[in-house]
Amino acid sequence: MSNNNTSNILLQLLLFFLGSGAELDDGGELQTLLTIKRDWGSPAALSSWKVRNSSSFSHCNWAGIGCRNGQVTSLSFHNFQIANLIPASICSLKNLKYLDLSFNNLTGEFPTALYSCSALQFLDLSNNEFTGKLPEHVDKLSLGMQHLNLSSNSFIGDLPSAIGRFSKLKSLVLDSNNFNGTYQGAAIGGLVELEMLTLAYNPFKASLIPNEFGKLTKLTYLWLS
Ligand SMILES: *[C@@H]1O[C@H](CO)[C@@H](O)[C@H](O)[C@H]1NC(C)=O
Ligand SMILES: *[C@@H]1O[C@H](CO)[C@@H](O)[C@H](O)[C@H]1NC(C)=O
Ligand SMILES: *[C@@H]1O[C@H](CO)[C@@H](O)[C@H](O)[C@H]1NC(C)=O
Ligand SMILES: *[C@@H]1O[C@H](CO)[C@@H](O)[C@H](O)[C@H]1NC(C)=O
């Protein structure tokens, strides 16, 4: 009983101190968002990202931001005219599950900074200017990934076999790149939750449709070319 009481009192004290400063309420997420904005060079699309008053969680109403229970869980920056690299500060949002950066002007190689986004389930990097090979250790991305869209970039080389480790993956959208190696049929064939797979419009080394794709019994959309 005394243990319970003590922890109750500690909890109330904690809530009291957290409640006394609006900046602390949100676990520092407002500050993190301002850092992301700065790291990205304050693009016009993020001009609503400003502290107007001290009401807590007002950042949940900023453009592109989705919150759940006051914590940022999604960033939707479709066609925000954002250029350059993805800042590592994004992964300071510990509950980030959904990241849509489609139709921007992002450059560089596959953004390994996102390996630290440990809650990530949805990643859309489609229609940007990414180049280079997918890293061999791409499975350092959250293994809870369900949707990965890299369509319409300039990625090259092989698909790493580590792609087969995302056992919860429902869609893998890789069409319209310059992948010119192999696509690891066996690894992809192990992704038994896959509902959507697109590999079309890539100069993959010619090969037959691998037998392993027969194991993808949940597949409802397959686009090869
Ligand atoms: C603070 O800003 C929020 C929206 O960002 C608004 O809903 C609220 O009314 C404002 N509060 C005050 C006291 O101005
Ligand atoms: C993004 O790319 C498009 C098409 O290439 C170009 O028209 C636009 O000016 C670029 N925007 C930025 C912010 O770089
Ligand atoms: C990218 O693919 C995901 C599924 O992985 C889909 O939900 C999303 O709409 C696609 N993005 C675009 C810009 O079509
Ligand atoms: C794939 O394309 C890149 C860039 O064009 C090239 O350097 C590389 O040799 C190509 N690889 C294969 C296996 O053709």
TrEMBL record:
Keyword Lyase on entry: no
Span of domain Disease resistance R13L4/SHOC-2-like LRR: 72-223
Coiled coil: none
Residue ranges occupied by any Leucine-rich repeat-containing N-terminal plant-type domain in the UniProt entry: 29-67
Signal sequence residues: 1-21
InterPro entries in the cross-refs: DNA_repair-toleration (IPR053211), LRR_dom_sf (IPR032675), LRR_N_plant-typ (IPR013210), LRR_R13L4/SHOC2-like (IPR055414)
Alphabetically ordered keywords of this record: Leucine-rich repeat, Repeat, Signal
Keyword Zinc assigned: no
Name listed for the protein in its UniProt record: Uncharacterized protein
Source organism of this protein record: Oryza meridionalis
